[in-house]
Amino acid sequence: MRGNKYIFSGMAILALSGLIAMSGFGHVSAIESSNYKTEPHNEGNSSERSTSTHYQVDSQVGDVAVGTSGSGAYQLDHGYLYPDSAVSLTFIVAPEKRVANPPNGDAPPNWDLSDIRLRINPVGSDNVLFEDTVGPTDTDGRWVTPIPANISPGVYDIRVKGLSHLSLLKTSVNLSAGNNLVDMSDDGSGGIVYMLAGDVNLTFGDDKVNSLDIGTTLRDLNTSTYRTDLNQDDKVNSLDLGMVITNLNLTGQ
Asked: DSSP label at 217?
């Protein structure tokens, strides 16, 4: 739930008599006044409440300073309200054949992706339970802001697709209540699963690499177009075209 909701009674506006200070996860405190009692709560992902005669703020599991504040003539809903049993996700992805940016022999490859489409399905099913597009990831390929999935804890299939990359599937992932870090780059034995590049046609690709993608890459040769600069060295050249040709006729998972 997001946004502000103002409720006024007639033409009179009742000013709040308390001042709220909120910082960190689950930290709620109030400055004392004639109508307000200070009731600070501990830091951490917790569900806590500060109250007074005219004001209430709830900090619930799931986000920074979330809940509902209200008085006789005022109500403020702020942040995401996640029930204790709700599932949220962060994830890691690894796009293939990236270089360090700026180029540096000692630097790790730049794994940032501008857009990632996340999809959650029942195991073995094409029925989409949840879908969202987020980005960009950081240079380690991490999306660190929890995504509220609005599903119950359980076992699911998770699929991610990049703007220029084929979709990648991780099956039978156990998602528990609260936030879950899903490492799409982990093959389970210490190796890395890379997202394959080359799907650069259409708005978000068609999840296959074909002659249309070759044509798009050829059109962008000698430019710095982000989407067809597949190795992210700030130029579209034969290296990027070679990646498309290598993955020709491959489809997403």
From this structure: H
